[in-house]
TrEMBL record:
<dbReference type="GO" id="GO:0005634">
    <property type="term" value="C:nucleus"/>
</dbReference>
<feature type="region of interest" description="Disordered">
    <location>
        <begin position="555"/>
        <end position="592"/>
    </location>
</feature>
<feature type="compositionally biased region" description="Basic and acidic residues">
    <location>
        <begin position="630"/>
        <end position="691"/>
    </location>
</feature>
<protein>
    <submittedName>
        <fullName>Putative Heat shock protein 110kda</fullName>
    </submittedName>
</protein>
<feature type="compositionally biased region" description="Low complexity">
    <location>
        <begin position="692"/>
        <end position="701"/>
    </location>
</feature>
<dbReference type="InterPro" id="IPR013126">
    <property type="entry name" value="Hsp_70_fam"/>
</dbReference>
<keyword id="KW-0547">Nucleotide-binding</keyword>
<feature type="compositionally biased region" description="Basic and acidic residues">
    <location>
        <begin position="574"/>
        <end position="592"/>
    </location>
</feature>
<dbReference type="InterPro" id="IPR029048">
    <property type="entry name" value="HSP70_C_sf"/>
</dbReference>
<feature type="compositionally biased region" description="Basic and acidic residues">
    <location>
        <begin position="979"/>
        <end position="1002"/>
    </location>
</feature>
<keyword id="KW-0067">ATP-binding</keyword>
<feature type="region of interest" description="Disordered">
    <location>
        <begin position="950"/>
        <end position="1046"/>
    </location>
</feature>
<dbReference type="Pfam" id="PF00012">
    <property type="entry name" value="HSP70"/>
</dbReference>
<dbReference type="GO" id="GO:0005524">
    <property type="term" value="F:ATP binding"/>
</dbReference>
<dbReference type="InterPro" id="IPR043129">
    <property type="entry name" value="ATPase_NBD"/>
</dbReference>
<keyword id="KW-0346">Stress response</keyword>
<dbReference type="InterPro" id="IPR029047">
    <property type="entry name" value="HSP70_peptide-bd_sf"/>
</dbReference>
Length: 1046
């Protein structure tokens, strides 16, 4: 299973993973952290989805169609996750969106697009899931070279640190729908800390008490927001101390200000009403695209050109300088001193950057920026000189550094975090702690208060009783993001006599600036819901909170009664025995208050949950402990002695009696023995039927003492936050006491119901299959259309001898032209068939029709292929036969081969050559549109047989040389003897040369070359060179073989 890290951006996303590569030099394989490229060879995939016809286009393809199909395009949807239509950020986005954004009945944002010839509402969650499926394709295309949209993956996804619980859950569920199992959803600050600190092995050790940790400030200025984070870093331990973010300093705001500036200029030039240029979806996209381009140009030079085409039916171009851009970003006022200049909303971006940086330093507990060891800047917008200069002023005198890749750092940090959480990778353990951005607490009302329908913070003008609030997890609470099982749980106690309701909410205003009213749970049947309404005015006396995380209601008409053995808190131990009886008799008394505990959990996702509610009651537990008695050693010894004496006396008496009986009754023994034998047989039969029970000694019952102790029993209460009924650990609802605990049905709702998510996932997979089917159908249709025009063009081409039209007969050309004309009419008659009620065409329909059309030109294609193959085959065969005939005449190499064999081989080669010449003459008399006289495959097969026979013939080894002549007689004189020795020496050297020539020329193996050559050398009395028989020397030439010409 693939493990990836996703930097989910508002403008584009990047995917990082570990790729196996070979190390240079050693050849060993290792893992390399890499950001993958998509099909366009780009590392950034645009966050854009376009709907056209029956297809969905995602990424670079959708980006190219954004202007022409702006109304059906969804872009920059990351910041819309988990928000309402009335959110100020959503209202700002609607001014520059291409598609129409609405709110569904369930409160989700959705875009209205034309898809499959009907208007559909695509929720932001569904669009995100579709985009994540595209990122999965990037992974499968880069690693597996396959495009499997259903392949499961595991990932860590980055989010802004200010994302609320609703936004994180929406992102998590979108990933789940797309088939991505999210190990974690980490903030950008945590991902940057991991990427920055992972390769730094020189950081101070956490075990070193004298070492001072390093404090690093990360400033991220992206396309949709900016963040400043302060991180405390030690080796393999990184802690995020504080974060501060802003939506007013980002690349999108810079583009918007530039576009608004030139939109106002264009409206004055064309005398249009204010806002008319930016009203159209296409005009908005064109203006923002041109603004982005000129922003990039001004990042490198002082002067640029703002150019846009076809806006309000005109082309517009005007120069634009970096100084003018800085004035717009500074939010300067006009001549009246009140109205901002064109394109500016009055917010000074430089001051906003200084504010978030100063706030982050203060929240981290630092006295000054001088306590920072480094300031690292990342993000695409830090390339703008104005932004970079503002950051330098905020952290003066600390120098800025940019050691990380501005666009890939977060993706790589997410992948390194995934390695810590995945069971498929092993590495050194690193601990990263993130912080909670908002204070999370519980809001509730007293039991006897009126108007329990509204929960929230009461204003001073409100006549309603204010609710109670308890902060459970304060802002800045740390939680670990690199561990799977590291949740933080806290219990909150309530004294209640009956079921009640509470709300988990943010204490301060969340960053999304959503003003909502939180109404308490509606008590009705088994339903529980939270309604959110927009606040119309600031002076309205309502209970307002910024956002509610979840709500909990203890179900049932009454709380469970105490068990009979429970120790009541208001009674003593003596009175507690009859406490339950007294409660049953006196029902009119005040109900007993019971301490109900609610568990609140903060998990590694940064999500807080009302996990469960339970009652802990004490009861008296009785335990029996056995008392063991031991006898004294002296008493045991005396008893043993008395037993031995009694046994001896009895033995003597029995011996005397037996002697008397033997003397008197010798005769009766035989009869008695017979009777005894019969009795023994009867006893044995009885023993087989009934087992014999041995006699045992009576044991006194043991004595016990009772030990009493207090224990706690946990009773899990039924809670309700939705319509989903579950049980803890799968225990049935009627389960009795299990390990001292009572289990009651529990209803827990976390985000959307699992059934709804599974249903959406099934629909998402169905849409992916439809997209694949539609894509294959269009590819088949395009292939059919392409073949029609290609076949028509080449069948009419007779310009040269090798043209395809020359291989067609008149009848074949007429049939092909007719078939092509019918196929073209059929291709464009699809709509008429649908109107007539015929089923729509499928991929197989086009493929079958294409196959039939190709079949009619098979003969001509065969003739063309044979002609082109024949042009290469004939010269090759002729050159091969000539080479064989020439090579066989070499007497030095092949003089040992019998002449009969050579003549037979030459005769076969000459016959092959003559046959081929005759066939060529006859073939040249034929036209190109006639079938060939011979097939190239037959000629090639026949030539290969001839060649194989020649190879066997020429590789025949040479015979061994004759045995040496006997030594001559002794010389008569000294001079004759010396002359004879010189002749023998010369003769030996000549033989030696012949042997080496033989080894070079023969085509035999090493056994016939080296072994036989060594024998010849030994016969002449010359030393054999040290050459192994199986391997030729470096100076030895390879045996010459007949080589086929190319």
């Amino acid at each position: 299973m693939s493990v990836i890290g996703i930097d989910f951006g508002n403008d584009g996303s990047r995917v990082a993973t570990l790729v196996k590569v070979k190390k240079i030099g050693s050849g060993a394989t290792g893992n390399q952290l890499t950001v993958l490229m998509n099909e366009s060879s780009e590392r950034t995939t645009p966050s854009i989805i376009t709907y056209k016809g029956k297809q969905r286009f995602v990424g670079d393809t959708a980006s190219n169609m954004r202007v022409s199909n702006a109304q059906n395009t969804i872009a920059e949807f990351k910041m819309l996750l988990g928000k309402r239509i009335t959110d100020p950020d959503v209202t700002r986005y609607l001014k520059y969106s291409g598609s129409k954004i609405i709110e569904t009945e369930k409160g989700e944002l959705a875009a209205q697009v034309m898809y499959r010839d009907e208007q559909k509402e695509v929720t932001i969650s569904q669009a995100t899931a579709t985009y994540f499926s595209k990122l999965k394709e990037v992974v499968t295309h880069s690693i597996d070279q396959k495009k499997d949209p259903f392949k499961p993956m595991e990932a860590v996804i980055s989010v802004p640190s200010f994302f609320t619980q609703n936004q994180r859950i929406a992102l998590f569920e979108a990933a789940r729908v797309s088939g991505i199992k999210a190990f974690n959803v980490v903030s950008d600050a945590a991902a940057l800390a991991m990427e920055y600190g992972f390769p730094k092995l020189d950081l101070p050790q956490i075990t070193d008490k004298n070492a001072e940790p390093i404090t690093v400030a990360f400033v991220l200025v992206g396309q949709s927001y900016s963040t400043c984070a302060i991180v405390l870093m030690m080796r393999d331990n990184f802690q995020v101390l504080s974060t501060c973010s802003s939506l007013d300093v980002c690349g999108r705001e810079i583009d918007r200000r530039i576009a608004d500036n030139f939109a106002a200029i264009l409206e004055q030039k064309l005398r249009l009403s204010p806002g008319e240029v930016m009203n159209g979806a296409r005009n908005r996209v064109r203006m923002l695209t041109a603004a982005q381009q000129v922003k990039k140009v001004l990042s490198g030079v002082q002067q640029g050109q703002f150019s846009v085409e076809n806006v309000c039916e005109t082309d517009f171009s005007q120069s634009f300088s970096r100084k003018e851009l800085e004035e717009i970003l500074l939010g300067k006022k006009g001549q009246d001193g009140k109205t901002p200049i064109q394109g500016s909303d009055g917010i000074n971006m430089s001051d906003e950057i200084r504010r978030i940086c100063a706030q982050a330093v203060t929240d981290a507990g630092l006295k000054s920026v001088k306590e920072l060891n480094a300031v690292e800047i990342v993000g695409g917008s830090v390339r703008v000189p104005f932004i970079r200069t503002s950051i330098e002023h905020a952290f003066h005198p600390v120098q800025l550094s940019q050691t990380l890749n501005s666009e890939e750092a977060i993706a790589k940090g997410c992948m390194l975090t995934a390695v810590q959480l995945s069971p498929y990778h092993k590495g050194r353990t690193i601990k990263v702690q993130d912080i909670l951005q908002y204070t999370v607490g519980i809001a509730w009302r007293k039991e006897n208060e009126s108007n329990p329908g509204i929960v929230g913070k009461a204003t001073s003008q409100s006549s309603l009783t204010p609710e109670r609030f308890l902060a459970v997890f304060k802002k800045g609470s740390q939680f670990e993001v690199t561990s799977l099982d590291n949740s933080i749980s806290r219990n909150v106690s309530f004294k209640r006599t009956k079921p009640f309701s509470i709300v988990l909410e943010y204490q301060e205003e969340p960053f999304n600036r959503t003003r909502v009213n939180i109404k308490d749970i509606k008590i009705g049947g088994n339903e529980a819901s939270i309604e959110q309404q927009q606040v119309k005015g600031q002076n309205e006396s309502v209970h307002t909170v910024r956002a509610a995380i979840s709500a909990l209601r203890v179900t049932g008409s009454d709380l469970p009664k105490p068990n009979p053995d429970a120790i009541l808190p208001s009674a003593s131990n003596e009175d507690n025995k009859d406490g339950q009886k007294e409660m049953d008799k006196d029902k009119e008394e005040k109900p007993l208050e019971r301490p109900v505990k609610v568990r609140v959990t903060l998990d590694r996702f940064g999500l807080a949950w009302l996990e469960t509610a339970f009652i802990e009651e004490e009861y008296e537990h009785e335990e029996k402990i056995e008392i063991k008695k031991e006898k004294k050693q002296e008493e045991k010894k005396e008893e043993k002695k008395e037993d031995k004496k009694e046994d001896k006396k009895e033995d003597k008496k029995e011996d005397k009696k037996e002697e008397d009986k033997v003397e008197k009754k010798e005769e009766e023994k035989k009869e008695e023995k017979k009777q005894e034998e019969k009795k023994e047989e009867e006893k044995k039969e009885e023993e087989k039927k009934e087992p014999q029970i041995p006699q045992t000694q009576t044991i006194e019952p043991p004595e016990y003492e009772i030990k009493r102790s207090r224990r706690t029993r946990k009773i899990t209460l039924g809670i309700q936050t939705g319509n989903k009924i579950t049980l803890p650990n799968g225990i049935p609802s009627n389960a009795p006491y299990v390990d001292g605990s009572v289990y009651v049905p529990v209803c827990v709702g976390t985000g959307r119901d699992d059934v709804e998510v599974d249903k959406e996932q099934a629909q998402h997979n169905h849409d992916l299959l439809e997209d694949k089917t539609e894509r294959e159908l269009i590819d088949s249709k395009n292939a059919f259309e392409e073949f029609i025009y290609f076949q028509r063009e080449r069948s009419a081409d007779i310009s040269s001898e090798g043209s395809f039209g020359n291989y067609l007969t008149v009848q074949e050309r007429e049939e092909i032209d007719k078939d092509l004309e019918q196929g073209e009419e059929w291709l464009y008659a699809e709509d008429d068939e649908i109107n007539d009620g015929k089923p729509p065409r499928t991929k197989e329909t086009y493929q079958r029709r294409l196959f039939d059309m190709k079949k009619k030109s098979e003969k001509a294609e065969f003739r063309e292929a044979e002609d082109r193959r024949r042009e290469k085959l004939v010269p090759w065969v002729q050159q091969g036969c000539t080479f064989l005939l020439t090579e066989s005449d070499n007497e030095e190499k092949y003089g040992h081969i019998a002449k009969e064999k050579k003549e037979k081989a030459k005769k076969d080669a000459n016959a092959m050559t003559k046959k081929l010449q005759d066939l060529i003459v006859k073939q040249n008399q034929k036209k190109k549109n006639e079938d060939p006289i011979f097939l190239c495959a037959d000629i090639e097969s026949e030539y290969n047989k001839l060649r194989k026979g020649w190879q066997e013939l020429l590789s025949e080894p040479k015979p061994k040389p004759p045995e040496p002549v006997a030594q001559p007689t002794a010389p008569t004189s000294a001079s004759d003897g010396n002359a004879q020795k010189e002749e023998v020496k010369k003769e030996g050297e000549m033989k030696k040369d012949e042997v080496f020539e033989k080894k070079e020329d023969t085509t035999t193996t090493a056994q016939t070359g080296a072994a036989e050559g060594n024998d010849l050398l030994d016969d002449f009395g010359i030393e054999t060179p040290g050459v192994e028989p199986t391997q030729p020397t470096s100076n030895q030439k390879p045996p010459s073989r007949p080589v086929s010409p190319k």
